[in-house]
Write a structure and sequence with these properties.
With about 240 residues, the chain is of the alpha+beta class. The chain is built from five helices and nine strands; from the N terminus they run H-E-E-E-H-E-E-E-H-E-E-H-H-E.
């Protein structure tokens, strides 16, 4: 790189608000240790046409909300602590906490109603004597109690939930009259169940029928030979796998 290239690179970093902290590297596409002339931030950058100025202003603006957040957090913690302290002294606040330590705060005794302009960092229980300090603000308005509105129950939906869904089972290789079985599934559960949950319930009922036949009749039944009819739907021949 010629001296003209060095001059070009120096011109670029100067225009962007930097100064070099080390000799020119010889090429503009190599990083160069630079320092911001405003905030002193040091970083390695390439003095190309894409060189951007330092973002110190944005960083300072970013720090300001962080400081405000810390102050708000400390203020909220103070208010929360003093509010809990009121409860232990059987007092209630007549005005919002000022958010500052060592100032007077209007409070009221929950039992006798005495109103004090008390130091917020020296809250004391009321001795139930005297009429209180003059100039107290009126007690805070109590919010109107909310009435709970119950939604009317849909009696038909409730009743339909417990309507049984009949499943008629047919067991092959058994004498007529003893090869028919009947089970039930709650309609409300069936309507909300997934396809896999429905299939699993049918398999459980089928296996129960197979084990009952083996126990009571002494006949081993192939589960694949058990078919069912679901409700009013004709599913004869269908087998839950």
């Amino acid at each position: 790189m010629t001296s003209a290239g060095k001059a070009l690179a120096t011109e670029r970093i100067t225009a962007a608000g930097y100064r070099a902290l080390e000799p020119f590297r010889g090429r503009v596409d190599q990083t160069w240790l630079l320092e911001c002339t405003t905030c002193g931030k040091q970083q390695r950058l390439r003095p190309t046409t894409k060189l951007k100025p330092c973002t110190h202003k944005k960083e300072q603006e970013r720090k300001l909300p962080e400081v405000e957040t810390e102050e708000k957090r400390a203020r909220d913690a103070l208010v929360s602590f003093r509010t809990r302290r009121l409860t232990t002294k059987n007092l209630r606040a007549l005005e919002p906490h000022p958010g500052v330590m060592g100032v007077r705060w209007w409070v009221e005794c929950k039992y006798c109603g005495r109103q004090w302009h008390m130091m917020e960092d020296n809250l004391r229980a009321c001795p139930h004597k005297g009429t209180g300090d003059e100039g107290a603000p009126p007690p805070p308005v109590k919010p109107a109690p909310k009435k709970r509105v119950r939604k009317p129950k849909d009696a038909r939906a409730f009743e339909s939930f417990w309507v049984p869904l009949v499943v008629e089972w047919t067991v092959q290789d058994l004498p007529e009259g003893s090869n028919r079985w009947r089970t039930e599934i709650m309609r409300g559960w069936w309507d909300k169940a997934t396809a896999s949950e429905r299939e699993q319930r049918l398999i459980e009922q089928r296996d129960h029928i197979v084990s009952t036949v083996a126990r009571t009749m002494g006949v081993d039944v192939d589960p694949a030979g058990v078919t069912y009819t679901l409700g009013c739907e004709e599913n004869a021949g269908a087998r839950p796998d």
